[in-house]
Amino acid sequence: MLNTALARVHIVMAALYLVFWAGIILKVLHAGGTAQIEAAVLLTLIFALPFGVHALAFAGVRRGKPWSRSLSRAVGILMLISIPIGTVIGIFILRRTRAADWEQGVTQTPPPVLP
Fold first, then answer.
1. For residue 76, with 0-12 CB atoms within 10 Å meaning exposed, 13-18 middle and 19 or more buried, which class applies?
2. Distance CA 72, CA 84 (A)
3. How many angstroms separate the CA atoms of 43 and 63, rounded?
4. pLDDT of 103 over the 60 cut
């Protein structure tokens, strides 16, 4: 697996969003009623975006895809405003996406071997 530390950050962040979403949804649904169901749907839509972005970045980063480097940079920049923990994570992500730290994956498949 390429870019191991960066991939771990993305998968941990995706897992944290999933855990927080589940906890909030359980709390909202425990109250009951139709308004709570609407709130649960809204919260699901809100939490799906960062979860999906981190999961997608994880899938690309571990393969060394160039688009995942750009996606990781965008996520890192957005996380800088989440003071204080998000700032530290954002800086870590930005440092790991530098050219010196990035491990590029194979972009072409090798030609088939003829018997």
1. buried
2. 19
3. 31
4. yes
